Amino acid sequence: MTQTLLMTGKLLRRCSIECGCLLVFLLLLPRLAMGSAVVLVPEDVLEDYQRFVAGREVDIIEDYSGPDARRDVVEVVFLLQALHLGGYLQDITLRSSPDYAHTFRELVSGRAAMSGTTVWKADVERFGSKIAISQALIDNGQFRVGVYTCQSDLQEVSHYQELTRLRVISNRQWSVDWNTLKQLGFSRMETVDDWPAIVRMLCLGRADITLAPFPSGADLKIQVGQYQLMPIQQVRVELKGSRHFPVSRVAPQAGRLKRSLEKGLVILQKQGRIAKAYQDAGFYNDKVANWPVINQSLATP
């Protein structure tokens, strides 16, 4: 699945013959000739992003709430907003990526320019010569998630020892999530490659729990297609580390993309729109602010 955002075309449509549209077009010719920058987005996130945007111009979105809003989706939105605010006027193609490992392979090869969702700094460090990172969007200590299940009878599990005896499913490629689960003492761990597969495994009874960011809904439930996940009450887990947008160092126009991204992110940060986006999407969630963080005493990995 791909979607091309015509940034240069948008600018041309806004100009008129009287204001020198021909001159603007001539000035943009070198940019038009460079081709489209590819931004990779997980398949399920791209689908939710398209429903969330629903034909709106991304630049004007300031309310990041809605049934399809979640952390990953609003990150795609403010990535595109940041690039535009930072002066990047070339066309951008959003392309679906089947899994986390595929995204890194495409960035290392230069076939893709960046990821539309943030990644753990720890996962990028081994690709340092090939992949750069943006400023932190989520600082160390800010990423706190719920423990989710498809089984209503597990919602009231309250004892730590009882929790760690459950079967947990995640993605081994998400190194911070995986290592945190091991540090918490889980021994019955299964791995699959993507979020929809995690949800299916839970609701088919092949695992009991997983980690997931909280949504914005009042009941804190997560709906994924026909499946619904519920949070275990009064339990949060802190995933230690910072998250950043990765940018290929070897893709065409990598330098311009990185500079535009950083400039735009600074503008969005000053406007308070990044924090608002995370708040609107439920990632920063007042409803669970007083829930205990069960691994808060663990040392930073």
Would you give an account of this structure?
- The chain is α/β, with parallel strands linked by helices and 301 residues long.
- It has eleven helices and 14 strands.
- Strands 1-3-2-4 form a four-stranded mixed β-sheet. The protein has a four-stranded antiparallel β-sheet with strand order 10-7-12-11, covered by helices on one side.
- A hairpin with a 2-residue loop joins strand 11 and strand 12.
- Helix 4 crosses helix 10.
- The two termini are 36 Å apart.
- The relative contact order is 0.19.
In short:
It contains 11 helices and 14 strands. Helix 4 packs antiparallel against helix 11.
Low-pLDDT segments: 11-19, 24-33
Helix share bin: 25-40%
In angstroms, what separates the terminal alpha carbons? 36 Å
Mean pLDDT: 89
Structural class: alpha/beta
Radius of gyration: 20 Å
Query: Count of DSSP helices?
Result: 11
Q: Count the E strands.
A: 14
Strand order of the largest sheet: 1-3-2-4
The main sheet comes to:
4 strands, mixed
Beta strand %: 15-25%
